[in-house]
Input
Amino acid sequence: MATEALVSFAVERIGDMLIQEASFFKGVRGQVDRLHKDLRAMQCFLEEADKKQEEDSRVRNWVSEIREAVYDAEDIIDMFILNAQSLRTHSFPERAFKKLTNRYKVGKKVEAIQLGLQDISKRREALGIKNIGEGTSTSRSDQMPQDLRRSTPHAEEHVVVGLENEADKLVNQLIGRDQRRRVISLVGMGGIGKTTLAKKVYNHTQVVKRFPDCRAWAYVSQDCRPRDVYMQIIKQICTSTKEQVEMMEKFQEHELGAFLHEHLKDNNRYFIVLDDVWSPSDWSCLAKRSSNDPDCLGSVFPDGGKGSRILLTTRYKEVASHADVRSIPHEMRLLSKQKSWDLFCRKAFLDIDAESYLPDLKELGEKMVDKCNGLPLAIVLLGGLLSKNMSHIEWRKVHDNINAYLAKEGSLTGVMTVLNLSYIDLPSYLKPCFLHLSLFPEDYVISTRKLLLLWIAEGFVLQQDRQSMKDTAEIYLNELINRNLIQVVRTSVNARVMECRVHDFIRELAIEKAKEHNFFGANIVVDPHLFPSTSSSLFSSKSRRQSIYSDFERYASIEHYSTPYLRSLLFFNLGGICRISQLDFITKCFKVLRVLDLEGLGIENVPSVIGELIHLRYLGLRHTGLKMLPLSIGNLRNLQTLDINNLKRVPDVIWKITNMRYLYIEEQEEDDPLKIDTVQNLQILSGITFNQWIRNNSSKLTCLEKLKIEGRCELVEGVEFSNSIAKLHSSLKSLYLKASNETSIPSLAMSSCPHLCKLDIKGRMQKLTETFQFPQNLSQLTLEACRLDCDPMPILENLPKLLTLRLRAGSYLGKEMHVSANGFPRLKILQLLGLSGLVMLNIEKGAMPWLMQLEFDDFKTKIFGLNELLNLVEVKILRFSFRVLRLLLDCFRSTKVPLWDLTRMADAKGEIHICRRKGLTLASSRQASEQLADVLERCRCRRRNFFRTRAI
Output
């Protein structure tokens, strides 16, 4: 239960403070210690209460009282430490008097909480809540599955049961011969599959062929912002330099609209998906309709008479008719009984024949699916819930509960109660992480790196034996993904989740539960039209967290003194420039703040009083334009994460912040000295320069796991630098070296770093390190701009545990590469991008026996030995042209028995994915490899002949 976890975190934190801040508790230590023990005793009853509070409002109120008591205890202790810290600058007589006064006040408040806890405890027996043991804090880690893997089955599955006919109809509408621009709408309730169907159609072969050069996908959401939508579209249909993008970022909304209009007008035809449009006024705002004339198609999406199409998804018919009165909206329908069962089987039985399970299990499943009333989202989540336990007892337990949850079949309430099953099923350590998702805006793409660090700063992640907190947080994330509560947006080449999103319904559920647990005060879109007299009345005095979605100036002008115990303040998508005086309210009103994220808010300066926020654990200043930090930042002794980029210089006070664990300071403009070797808890250091690094004693950084060094390095001596890395032998797992201004990476021997498994090098190298100088446990290697003259394969192929090899632009300047027999014995992923001079790759028989994925961006390279790669199941071709796509289609169609599918073709990144069909025998696998080699070679030859003909 969320309260159990939150109480556990708070109790543990109070215990930590009794140890770490011992000097502050003189005179009240005994009382605080007794309070700590009383709170720990209450934990013994919370798990039992969890089982009853869903059905008994009295128990729910009892649990709420415990939670409030814990919050009060936290507030008293945090404020006491803050006041004690501030007294250090006072004169001795004044300091002594105020200390006595503060201790007296704290003592009285602690006594009041203890009396309240005694009263709560007396009422426990009347509610029938039993003692379950000596607390839950020690069992928390035991709930963790022991063998959870990092990677999750989050690759696109395309589970579109029941949508095949709808997809065909939509495709026909999109590629029809009507040359007028048409707006086609998908209409239906949330969770019915509008976005899923839109994605299937967007990537359909015929649609890709019809709109080869100008396709874009944009999320609109309830908080419609035309400027953001225009930028999403422009970034997908325009090839822009970094400078051009930065220039467009400064455009006003109408300027972006005009720019988009001109670009679309110049194209032959375009296809744009606008996902999740909420109101007719949102459409009008996006299209800039200038009159009531239905023939007036607005100023942003032109009608050039070329057959352009716009596909929008919405929950309301009114939006569809308003967008295009000539088009009949495509109304999504609930799944039939058979289709519902088919979808459920795909999720619950994981593609295993349902008939192979006991008949009574099937009978229970059919009854539960019937109560989902054909809503795909509810069916998928229910199937995911039941897939984790195939016993009749567990299924009967869910079946018996679902009757109450789905009392209102087909209604929003009924759907939410089905979703609530997934929340109830969550172990206590995951519930606060799930509730935290309620803080993010609708359809917001969340950086998983940031999300994990926020969870850590909030105290939701506890240290596990022999595992970093960030790794533990990643396990939490992957479990939420496995439970279908978080959607994956983007993964890395080695399948780690980089970005994610929360579905609308899931977010609504998180908000509902967060309110129940007083987890946050408000998610605020400060709109002067909706709230003309916005004031502090919007916020509860018990608010612990707030997230602000728009209009910083209006939010800053509100009186905030009614929420003095706010712990987290997050800002999203605000833009604009913020004056230093506008940030003063944060330090004046929120003195016990732990998390402050100002990412994306234009900030000229940070006030020096930020150093008074001594409880701050997370400070996010990325993409703020901030150039200087005040020296007072060194007073933030509890700060765990500082995330900032593009500073002119980093103040040399980081050495004071001894609790720092995650330091991101990329792209510093100046290379001033920076002492960090006193920060012995540091686990991630990203953005320190070569010159700064070499001046520190790296042997003191015994916890450092991930290191990124960048900048100029011509003055760095190779042996000295190599030795500084070698001193990290007990902890270093990931190393990224990025040299600037044509300087060469210092020579480096890494064999003394046995735990180093990931190495990225971007910059000129005099020569490639010999095999024996690489760490033998290296599993990922990326080389870029190294300008190597000699073939790197003879050295790299001998790395025994290498799984992923990425050779990117400028890494190798030669024309040929050779992989000998038995080379790369465990390699699974090979990426060759931007190797403009490479004309031949020769893979001898027996090499790369486990290669599964090949990625390249140029057909001019002739690959020998591709037919021997029997485990190759996926080929990705980046930055292709429509001619390449057509060549591939023609070549595959000419094969007698196609064994490969072109999937996710021409997605937003401009990729072709060629995937081998599943379930092939060894003989068929060999045939598939030969077929792929033949198709790619024919494409290469035809492309070469085409360009020769054009040259003539």
Notes: DSSP finds 28 helices and 31 strands in the chain.
